[in-house]
Amino acid sequence: MMLTVELIDETEQLEAEIMEEIERLLQHAAQQETIEKTAELSVTFVNNERIQQINAEYRNIDRPTDVISFALEDEVEGELEIVHSPDQPVLLGDIIISIDKAKEQADEYNHSFMRELGFLAVHGFLHLLGYDHMDEDEEKEMFERQDSILESYGLNRS
Hints:
The protein is α/β, with parallel strands linked by helices and 158 residues long. It has helices spanning 16-32, 48-59, 99-109, 113-128, 136-153, and strands at residues 3-9, 39-46, 67-71, 90-98.
């Protein structure tokens, strides 16, 4: 299993250590989720203004949010099935995280900025893998996976 993570910090606010930590966490999450194929994803860090634009454009919700995922592998009814050649990596999609929101929420939940960024990255990653929280059962499953990945990695709420 190989996961390629492209990290882009549009805000130029994150130290290299934080970026490396997010990549290690996502590699860990990929192992926990036993992704067997070579896969790629990107994580872009933006400010509230930028994520609000994206949220308005793609979800018709005109306010900033903490994380948005765009899964490239979503099978949509009526579309052609996605077929991979065995030597091509699976493109999971893009995760966009608001640094401003992450800072606000870290303060609000009284845990570290790194814990919040990690939580948002894993949350976005699980969405790319098809997890969702549209109903109570899905939400419970997704949040249990999320907590399990963060705990096994050692990124706790303290």
